[in-house]
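Team,

Forwarding the record for the chain on the shared tracking sheet. I've put the sequence and predicted structure together so nobody has to dig through attachments.
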Amino acid sequence: MRARWSAALIAIAVLGVCPAAVLARAPVPVVFNAERAPFSVQVDDTIVEYRVFGAFVTAGDIVSIRAVDAGARAPFSVRTAGPMFRKRGRGAWEGRAPMAPGAYPVTVAEDGTGETLTINLFVMIPADSTAGGRLEGFRIDAYPPPLRGLATYRAPRGYVKFTQALERALVSPHFTLAQFLCKQESGPVKFLALRPALLVKLERLLERVNAAGIRAQTLSVMSGYRTPFYNRGLGNTPNSRHIFGDAADVFVDADGDGVMDDLDGNGSSDFRDAAFLLRLADQVDRSAAVTKGGAGAYRATSAHGPFVHVDARGTVARW
């Protein structure tokens, strides 16, 4: 059944270690809103075009923010409850990431129009802080050597420390950090890696889903980040994109029953719905707006319903 959501919640800031970082919520209209900002900014090497988006840095990193085409727009300003940014020219700033892990909202505002874009700056714990394959007791294990020496197969340089305070922290307009947590059993503290290229791809895919007449305010993430330890336990390939934080197994579940919705309108949830979603993912992957990657449709098993794998490995792959 194609469900229609009358209301949902979107947070435009996150609750992190900073007391002033307040989680704000607003109703989402029935008509899908991609939540693109009227301007874009570049955060280090990532172009951000959404009203809220995650950036991932390690403690003490120098972070640069630049408003794209700032010279053609009104002046900009930066507001933050965490790192202090210094102006480095028209629409450009530079600051140092805090030493304490957590989420720090940084808001870029276009003066005069009141339009804003919020960067949720996630300060990660460096990967070299692991000892014996564990980070604060959370088991990660060693990463395999980079496949064919490719940079995209290098181990993450840091991990986001997930705590209850970040339960609803947004990494993009329609996805939360919690959706990408590894499913392995652990204590209250968990760690994960996540790459912005995947978030852009998922937002674009969700937009295509809604353009196809299927009302959904997010995609269900069956599997996001996997530690090498957990990935090995699944018997998966050691170089699975999941261990690098740029892969997700997703399905549309707007009616909340835990399985893929009937996307093709044939009255049942089956592989044809995964094939439908895969066609949309392929359209996204072949556009100029995303990092190319892998995609494949999977059938239902006794453990799960049908789903689609998408990733941002940098080259097109299908299976």
